[in-house]
Design brief:
This protein is mainly α. Helix 8 crosses helix 13. It is globular, with a radius of gyration of 18 Å.
């Protein structure tokens, strides 16, 4: 792993995206014992676009309330603290992605849809496998390809060559990145996650989501994001630029202890949530 080279690239980029202020404030608040619904509501209200999206989501078909919910504090109670944190990150990241321009080589709208799709499938897999914190897995899925965004923006010419090689050879993007750049988006993404001071659990989900090399300990969270990514590509939920479906590592499936019969439920549930999420998180 060319970690020094990646760290140099990360540190030399002056305009790297930072974690949104609202998300950072919310993350800090949720770790304090005296946090309240009103305090959380006040933080979310600092960004009207995020607040509006939270209300859109709680009023979506997934929750099925007869009367429309217009009060942010009530929405927070209904959704729960962990889900609120994930939704604020998703809403905030959507605004960051919109600031980056699509190119002939890389479509940002399709990239964002892929990120949402992977996050949703990984979360549903985590729920089905009875993981303790499915929302943490959602975060890992949402950010798993953030390294591609950095490559497409700050290593534009080299990344165009990467994409051209993927189209020409049909290889996985990570393989083409290693060939042309000397490192892949999982390595760059995890380096950025460290710079953002994200939890190690999240860093590892980003770093190992392809399982092209195995971590010292394969966790169920990593396995869920790994499988979520492959299923997202298979069901064409957006596009991260891949031209073929990544092969699922058998160990990832085994560690989640799911049956093949669980797969139908996972995809039905995920497809419904994906369609709702994309309609709410409009990307123009």
């Amino acid at each position: 792993m060319k970690s020094k080279k990646i760290d140099t690239i990360i540190s030399s980029i002056g305009k790297l995206p930072t974690l949104p202020t609202v998300y950072m404030k919310l993350s800090h608040l949720l770790t304090t014992p005296d946090s309240s619904i009103k305090m959380i509501s006040n933080i979310i209200s600092e960004d009207q676009a995020v607040a509006a999206m939270v209300l859109k989501i709680v009023n979506s078909a997934s929750y099925g309330f007869y009367n429309k919910i217009g009060d942010l504090q009530r929405a927070i109670v209904i959704l729960g603290m962990n889900e609120i944190k994930s939704l604020v990150l998703a809403a905030s990241m959507s605004t960051i992605v919109k600031d980056f321009k699509s190119s002939n080589a890389f479509n940002m709208q399709q990239f964002w849809k892929h990120a949402i799709g992977c996050a949703i499938i990984a979360k549903v897999l985590a729920e089905t496998a009875y993981l303790k914190d499915p929302e943490d897995v959602f975060t890992g899925g949402l950010l798993h390809d953030i390294g591609k965004l950095i490559h497409a923006t700050y290593l534009c010419e080299e990344f165009n060559d990467v994409v051209a090689n993927v189209v020409k050879t049909g290889s996985q993007m990570s393989e083409s990145e290693k060939k042309i750049l000397g490192f892949d988006h999982a390595q760059t993404g995890s380096a950025l996650a460290k710079k953002w001071n994200l939890p190690w659990k999240t860093v590892n989900m980003i770093a190992y989501h392809h399982l092209s090399y195995m971590p010292d300990t394969l966790t169920k969270e990593i396995a869920a994001v790994h499988i979520g990514n492959s299923l997202c590509v298979a069901f064409r939920m957006g596009s991260g630029g891949e031209k073929r479906i990544p092969i699922v590592n058998q160990k990832a499936w085994e560690i989640l202890e799911l049956k093949l019969s669980d797969l139908e439920y996972v995809m039905q549930r995920s497809t419904k949530l994906f369609e709702e999420s994309i309609s709410i998180m409009e990307f123009e």
